[in-house]
Amino acid sequence: MADLAPTAERPGLHVSKPSPSEPATASAVCHCGATASATGDAQVGALVAGWSANHGSAHANGGTA
Questions:
Q1: Rounded CA separation 46/43 (Å)
Q2: Lowest CB count within 10 Å: 20, 24, 46, 64, which one?
Q3: 30 neighbors 40 (Cβ within 8 angstroms)
Q4: How far is the C-alpha of 15 from the C-alpha of 61, rounded, in Å?
């Protein structure tokens, strides 16, 4: 399987939770240059909410970066 981590050449959001007993992890790279990473279910949830509101496809919908 190819590496799914986002890069400047392949921006996006990647979330992983290998098992229910392990914390979630996430990394994000936006085409605007913003980057973020998080560990822990609550922190990953916050990163995903911020990404959805302000980056990725939100840029096309008037989101800020």
A1: 5
A2: 20
A3: no
A4: 23
pLDDT at position 28 over 70: yes
What average pLDDT does the segment 54-58 reach? 82
Report pLDDT for 1: 43
Residue 42: both structure tokens together: 């609550």
List CB contacts of 7: < 8 A, sequence separation 6 or more: 29
Range scoring the smallest mean pLDDT among 1-5, 8-12, 15-19, 39-43: 1-5
Taking a C-beta distance cutoff of 8 angstroms, is the pair 51, 36 a contact?
yes
Does the predicted model carry a pTM greater than 0.85?
no
If we measure between CA atoms, which residue out of 3, 64, 5 comes closest to residue 34?
Answer: 64
| Backbone φ and ψ of 16, nearest 5° | -135, 140
Q: Distance (Å, rounded) from C-alpha 30 to C-alpha 44?
A: 16
